[in-house]
Amino acid sequence: MILLLLVLSFCTALCIEDDIGYGLNIGNAIDLFANYGDLSQVTQVVSADYEMEDEPIIPFSEKNIRVFANVSSRIVMGDSITNIDVLLCENFEDLLNVYFQNFKIEGTSKPWKAFLGDWIHDEIMRTFGIEYDMKSDNCCYVLVKLTKKHRTVELEDLEGIRVRAYIQRAIDKLDINDPAEIRRFMKSYGTHYIESFVTGNFIYQVFKYKRSGYNRLRSYIRIRNSRPTLPDNLRFYFSSYYLKHVGDIKVASGNKTVEFWARRNLRDSQYLYSRPSLLRLYYNTNLLYQLNDMLDHGALIGLKLKTLRPMFEDSAMAEKFAEIVENDLQLWEINA
Q1: CB-based contacts of 180: which residues, under 8 Å, 6+ apart?
Q2: Quick one: signal sequence residues (predicted)?
Q3: Taking the domains of the chain in order of start, what are their residue ranges?
Q4: How many whole angstroms separate alpha carbon 206 and alpha carbon 179?
Q5: Mean pLDDT, all residues of the chain
Q6: Using CA atoms, how far apart are residues 204 and 87, in angstroms rounded to an integer?
Q7: Sheet strands (E) in the chain
Q8: Which candidate among 43, 161, 235, 316 keeps its CA 20 to 30 Å from the CA of 65?
Q9: Is residue 143 exposed (0-12), middle (13-18) or buried (19+ Cβ within 10 Å)?
Q10: Can you tell me whether residue 206 is helix, strand or coil?
């Protein structure tokens, strides 16, 4: 009997080792709490300064485990800049929510906290190319970005999904009424699975506005959307008269070559001032084509994580597991 248990334990260990990955594996599970608040260190989602710039940029390097035996997915490829977005943000937290709007984590309304929650305010602002200002409470922000999608992968319907045999054995032994045991299970097999992801890149710039200037820009965009035949005066609302600060141009993958090109080529001259501005791309298609050829696909630009309910055949067990995961997630979100 003891020998049989030892053999089973050895086989389970080998299976787990074979099923562990560190790349983007659709359907695989991660323990969200392992790096909560600093997921940006294992996912390439914001620009940052790297010590080893020669190292290849990897969109995702978080530990994940294959929990389902029969996963299938849909893949859509695309390699051109899709759109220029001008996104209005009432305050700095709204800016973070807007930046991470394509990241969905079941159980939380603020996915950005999973990625940047442990960062100090100054560090976060630097990744957005703007200066830290203790008196910025009444400031508004506009995020301008251009997105280039490379690959979109979505999980197929999970109906009829099978759990890996050794994980099913662990589920069968799990006491669902013991929160401590459930949390140990989470550390071994994860809390969420990857339902979909998007790789690619985007170039972005943040403009900090005076409240009065922001309100005028918002009114202009509302009118322009309802009356598209009006002359395009967008550039006027990005003048120094309305702005408090113009942020640096950043690239989500952290590609310094592209960032340097943008600072040098995307300059907007107004009156006596010259400064980098992504709006140059709004009016210059030649520069837009050049940028499209330069942008790599080293960033994670979309991610959807769902709680591991499908791992449990028993619906009551699934809901109890999800309840503990999501309650813990709410507490971590508050404290981040």
Answers
A1: none
A2: 1-15
A3: 18-335
A4: 43
A5: 89
A6: 11
A7: 20-21, 29-30, 64-65, 73-77, 81-89, 103-105, 140-155, 192-209, 243-246, 250-251, 267-270, 273-276, 299-307
A8: 316
A9: buried
A10: strand
Q: Strand, helix or coil at 176?
A: coil
Angle between helices 315-335 and 179-189 (to 10 degrees): 80
For residue 153, CA distances in Å to 44, 198, 309 come to 17, 6, 20
Q: Residue 81: its pLDDT value, please?
A: 80
What is the tens place of the pLDDT at every residue in 138-174? Answer: 789 999 999 999 999 999 988 889 999 999 999 999 9
Rounded distance between C-alpha atoms, residue 237 and residue 221, angstroms:
10
**Residues 180, 175: Cα–Cα separation, whole Å:** 10
- Give the Cα separation of 307 and 321 in Å (integer): 9
d(CA 274, CA 267): 6
| Number of residues assigned to the chain | 336
CB-count burial class (<10 Å; 0-12, 13-18, 19+) for 222:
exposed
Residue 334: alpha-carbon gap to chain centroid: 19
Quick one: DSSP state of residue 312? -
DSSP 22-76: SS--TT-EE-GGGSTT-GGGTB--S----S-TTSPP-SB---EE--BSS--EEEE
Could you give the CA distance from residue 177 to residue 259 in angstroms, rounded to a whole number?
A: 52
Contact 75, 153 (CB under 8 A): yes
Q: Is the model's pTM score more than 0.85?
A: yes
At 143, list the tokens: 């995020």
Q: What distance in Å separates the CA atoms of residue 187 and residue 152, rounded to the nearest whole number?
A: 28
**Is the model's pLDDT at 278 over the cut of 50?**
yes
